[in-house]
Write the structure tokens for this entry.
Amino acid sequence: MPHNVIFSDLALELRDKAREIAEKHVRPNAAKFDKAQEYNHEAMQAVAEAGLLKTWIPKEYGGVGAGVLALAMVTEELARADSGFGVAFAVNALGSFPIVLGGTEEQKSKWLPLVAEGKKLCAFCLSEKGAGSDAGGLAVRAEQEGGKDGDWIIRGEKKWTTNGGVADIYTVFCVTDPTSKSRRISAILVEKGTDGFTIGKVEDKMGIRTVPVVETHFDGVRVPHANLLGGRAGMGFKHAMMTLDHARPGVAAQGVGAAQGSLELATVYANKRIQFGKPISSFQMVQEMLANMAMKTQAARWLVYSCAAAVDAGEQNITKNAAIAKCFATDAAMEVATDAVQIFGGYGFMEDYPIAKCFRDAKILQIYEGTNQVQRLVIARNLIKESEQ
Ligand code: CAA
């Protein structure tokens, strides 16, 4: 079937722009920035100028409203060149989806056009030292001063804030009612530069070294009531879960891009590497590995696209399929990267070739935005719930 039967012209245009930027600005710098653990500001500037940060932002707020499928396609292209850059891009969606999905009209009009223009990059502050998989077990506290429209004062520390330091808007999940079970948490928007808000430890990571992951510290950070997401306290856990449902196809797409990148490197290498007088690609055991890698990558890609298309079509119950896509595609990425290293043999274990980076980068995909154990738990819970209906 021709591609434009499935994808909108806009989605294909955005994907092509992403591919061009990935080849021109991302791939050539990936090894250097990985070693130095540096962020590629120039490539993100190119992404903003090409309008790629408008992808998931609705038209009425300065975006192009191309949806989650286009977001997945763009992310895939960027991650194919460098997984770290893929996530640096995708976290802008993760950090701004709470506004898209749960913000007041005023919040959407104020912040989303700035995100779409690339004037404000985003981060998502959910995880803490003691709250990773247990997203409801947060300790960061926000208290309101001076009545129902008063400011909120935030105290505590967040962990694993991706894009921390480069981002301008931080969606911070805080405990606002410790006595409540189901309305304990609220999301509050905090701007870079607000008094008392600082970046703590910058993590020294195994992979995705081209995107910063940091601790964020909130030492009596005062923000106006207007920054309380949705204007109503107690909605934070729901906002977090709804956001993750929409963002997980994007992480899954990072997995597809990472798998595709590893597959391409392994295929080119297998064609060049001569052993026993022949390219190793002529040996059936290597061919079997390449074929399996291609099948996993392709299966993951279409799973992700179908899940993302269902979100765009307005399907209501997206939780299970988003978890299936995230889990399958990121497991595929790790498996494909592992086999790719195997095809490179001893050279694959060395940092002289780009495949070692692909392998290091792939691991986090099975851990962040919900471990793949949490995804399986979500899938199983939903299956059981459906069987009871
Ligand atoms: N959409 C809307 N509401 C939802 C929901 C969803 N998908 N899932 C749950 N809820 C609601 C429930 O209906 C329930 O509401 P009520 O109290 O009104 O009944 C409430 O939320 C609590 O739900 P659960 O009882 O299912 O919650 P739980 O404590 O058992 O946790 C969990 C469920 C799935 C394990 C969840 O904690 C989770 O997803 N954990 C993983 C967290 C995660 O993904 N962290 C990643 C951080 S971001 C990151 O990594 C980004 C990065 O840097 C790149």
User: Anything to note?
Assistant: The mean pLDDT is 97. The beta strands are 122-125, 141-144, 152-162, 169-175, 185-191, 197-202, 213-223, 274-275, 278-279. The chain is about 55% helix and 15% strand. The two ends are 36 Å apart (CA to CA).
